[in-house]
Amino acid sequence: MDKYIVENFPTALQIVKEFKMCLELVILLSFLFSVQYVPLIENCVLQMLVYEFMPNGTLRDHLSAKTERPLSFGQRVHIALGAAKGLLYLHTEANPPIFHRDVKASNILLDSKFVAKVADFGLSRLAPVPDIEGTLPAHISTVVKGTPGYLDPEYFLTHKLTERSDVYSLGVVFLELLTGMKPIQHGKNIVREVNIAYQSGDVSGIIDSRMSSYPPECVKRFLSLAIRCCRDDTEERPYMADIVRELETIRSMLPEGEDVLSSTSGSGLLAKSMSSSSTTTTGALYVSSHISGSGQADSGIPSGMVAPR
C-alpha cells in the first residue's frame, strides 16, 4: 500500500466523540479483518487517521452523470454484493455486532479492482447485548442520525435502531445502482418514484440507460430485492444474509464474462474529481466479507429494451 488518505477531525465535543468511536471500531475490525490503517495523531489540537487510498473513489462518483465510463450491470451487482457482505460481517461476525447507521453511496468505496468497502463509522453503534437475564433487546433506542434519503423511516419515527435499519439504507443504494438517480432529487424521493413505476408494471423509464445492455431477469430480481429492502415495515425487510444469498444467485445468472469486473482500472476516470476534493472520497473504515447462497424475486421489465449480446 503506497498511497494513503488523511482524514481530519475538528476538535468539537461531538466530533471528538465520533473520532473516538471511529478509532475504537477501526482497532476492533482491523484485527479481525486486516484493514490497513495508521492512527497518526490524537491530541487536543488535531485528531487524524490515515487509511489505505481507494483509487476508484466512491460509488457515488461512478453513478454521477459526469462519469466518463458508466458501470455495467455486472459491475453494479458485484459492488452491491461486496457492500452487502461487508454489512453482513458487521451484523453477524463482528464481536460485538455493529449497526453502521449511515450506509450510503458516498460511504461505499471502491479499490483498484472495484471491490466495495464500507466506510465511515463515525455514527455507528454497537448492537445490543443480552441483559443479566439473557434477554437480547430487539433494538437500540438512540437519537436519530444519518443522511436524508437513506434513513429508515421506522427508525426516524420511533428512534429504534435495528440491523434492518441498515438494510433499508442499503436498499436505497441498490435503487441508485439500478436507476442512477440520487435518493432525493428535484424534490422526488427515489423509493417513492421506484415504487410508483414498479406498481404500474413498467419500470423501463427508471432503469439507468447508461448500463446499455443487461439480462432482464437479473434486473427484475435485483429490483425486487431492492424494493423489499425499502419496505416501511422493518419486519417485511430481508436480513443481510438473505440479501447476500439473493445477490449471489443473481450473479450466478449473469452471462459468462458479465460477472467479471473490467480489467481496466477506473482510477483515471476519477482523477479530476479526486484531485480537487480528495477528502470527500475517504471513510473511517473499509470492510468486505465473503459468503454464498441462493434466493428468489420478481418484477416487470420488458425484454425488448435489452440490447442483444
For the secondary structure, the number of strands is: 11
Please tell me the overall pLDDT: 75
CATH architecture of the largest domain: Orthogonal Bundle
How many helices does DSSP assign?
9
CATH class of the largest domain: Mainly Alpha
Order of helices and strands: EHEEHHEEEEEHEHEEHHHH
Main location: membrane
Pfam families: Pkinase (PF00069)
EC number: 2.7.11.1
Subcellular location: Membrane
Describe the structure.
It is a single chain. The chain has about 300 residues and is α+β, with helices and mostly antiparallel strands. The chain has 2 domains: about 1-55, no CATH class; about 55-125 and about 140-260 and about 285-305, Transferase(Phosphotransferase), domain 1, CATH 1.10.510.10. About 35% of the residues lie in helices and about 10% in strands. The protein has 9 helices and 11 strands. The protein has helices at about 15-35, 60-65, 75-90, 155-160, 165-180, 190-200, 215-230, 240-255, 270-275, and strands spanning about 5-10, 35-40, 45-50, 100, 110, 115-120, 125, 140, 160, 185, 190. The strands form 5 sheets. The chain has a 3-stranded antiparallel sheet, covered by helices on one side. It has a two-stranded antiparallel sheet with strand order 4-7. It comes from Zea mays. It is found in: Membrane. Its EC number is 2.7.11.1. It is a single-pass membrane protein. This is non-specific serine/threonine protein kinase.
